[in-house]
Amino acid sequence: MFKDPFDIDNYAQDPDHYLAVPFVPTEEDTVAAMLALAGVGPKDRLYDLGCGDGRIVIAAARDRDAHGIGVDIDPMRIADAMEYAGWAGVEHMVDFIEEDLFSVDVREATVVSLYLLQSINVELRPRLLSQLKPGARIVSHAFDMGDWPADEKIRVADGYIYKWTVPAPVAGRWDWTRADGTTCRLELEQTYQQVTGRTWLGEIEARLVAAELTGERLEIELQADDATPVQRFILTFADGALKSVIEA
């Protein structure tokens, strides 16, 4: 009988299922820290890839009123997770799917949690970037995403937790007109959330002093020359288009 949800032996797995990552339970304090770092709340749908016994999904429902989906290829872990959800009283808020984490559709997720390996994270990275909406958060226990730098990183008792916010695609040319009739133009290049490029204020090429991309929101600072003040703009992107510009 499933007595204590945090006292599960790492018993032998079904030999018909190859596990790319061995099951290693996440400590309760680390689970809480992951959910806090991701800012999980009632409006979120969390997907835990390689969910094991489901403790991250269940904690998100129990402690933060979020809905969640756990994904694991091992039917024994799925059975444990479903039993634990009933024990915790959150079975109406969570679901568990027996599926390969490399094929599961995560487009509905606002948060994805991981405790895998760096090589697996890197292999998942293109899928996460293509399927998740800009602004979705990814949190990983212990392992990073290779050359995709984390937005935040915190120390916990058994290592680090990393957080990324999925960036909107902003590379390309963007034009808008200010209230005084001056045209502005950006020609941007992008590597994950890191943005560089050239800018123009009217006919004058300006210097891109700073650019910070968080989800759909790009904050930039432009300066025409050293004698003029820095000008700040907040651009919002959606569905591959520039939706709004605010002059801050």
UniProtKB/TrEMBL annotation:
GO molecular function (one): methyltransferase activity
Gene3D superfamilies: Vaccinia Virus protein VP39
Annotated Pfam families: Methyltransf_25 (PF13649)
InterPro entries: FAM173A/B, Methyltransf_25, SAM-dependent_MTases_sf
Keywords from the named record: Methyltransferase, S-adenosyl-L-methionine, Transferase
SUPFAM superfamilies for the chain: S-adenosyl-L-methionine-dependent methyltransferases
GO BP annotations listed: methylation
CDD domains hit by this protein: AdoMet_MTases
Domain named Methyltransferase: residues: 48-131
Keyword Methyltransferase: yes
PANTHER family: METHYLTRANSFERASE DOMAIN-CONTAINING PROTEIN
Protein name, per record: Methyltransferase domain-containing protein
Taxonomic source organism: Brevundimonas olei
